[in-house]
Amino acid sequence: MIRDFRGLEATVLNTPAWAPAANSPARAARTLSFAALAIISFAFLAGCSGGTSQSVSTAVKDSSSAVATARIALRQDMEGKLTRAAASTSLDDELKEIQTSRSTILTLSPATQGDRETQKQALDVLDQCAAGFATARAALAANDGGTPALSDGDKALADAQDALKQLKDKVGDK
Predict the structure, then answer these.
(1) Is residue 53 within 8 Å of residue 174, measured between CB atoms?
(2) What is the pLDDT of residues 55-103, one digit of tens each?
(3) How many helices (H) and strands (E) does the chain have?
(4) Residues 6+ positions from 150 with CB-CB distance below 8 Å
(5) Contact at 8 Å (CB) between 77 and 28?
(6) Which of 105, 161, 157 is nearest to 136 (CA)?
(7) 67 closest CA partner among 155, 140, 133
(8) CA–CA separation, 135 vs 124, rounded Å?
(9) φ, ψ dihedrals at 4, nearest 5°
């Protein structure tokens, strides 16, 4: 405990405002935090050696959710329970999720031939999903029962959902 205010004033004036005193609890906590962060980072990087399957598994989960949400919006539009604008916005938002998953898979650097094949298959499936979204969006834009019909959009998304399920069965739940 400091009893001399002049001594405290000298310590405060000679120490930068951002730097805690040499033996302060704040400095010890910060050092411990940095050490913990380094250990967690190392553990994360060490666990990513099988990163391709794990990344594909995550992309499949995210994409499956996006396709399921898009199908719900499309069906609600077909039943007259959702406006075209709301369904279109939902499809656009979920397509962004597919594109994000595709970008993640595209940036992987697979180390083995098996991982490269998994990456290629995942990209093909995500391209199929994007094509399903394109069909569904075109059906919504037709707005008059033209071609493609809303049922065609739903079928394209259902096919994408099936392809995602097959990919999930291959890579498993990581």
Answers:
(1) yes
(2) 999 999 999 999 999 999 999 999 999 999 999 999 999 999 999 999 9
(3) 6, 0
(4) 74, 77, 78, 136, 139, 140
(5) no
(6) 157
(7) 133
(8) 17
(9) -105, 110
- Which amino acid makes up residue 72? I
- Distances in Å between the Cα of 84 and the Cα atoms of 21, 92, 99, 109, 139 are 62, 12, 22, 40, 10
What is the pTM for the complete model shown? 0.69
User: Which residue is it, tokens 């005193």?
Assistant: 21
To the question of domain 51-171 being in CATH 1.20.58, the answer is no
CATH 1.20.120 placement within the chain: 51-171
Backbone angles phi, psi at 139, to 5 degrees: -65, -40
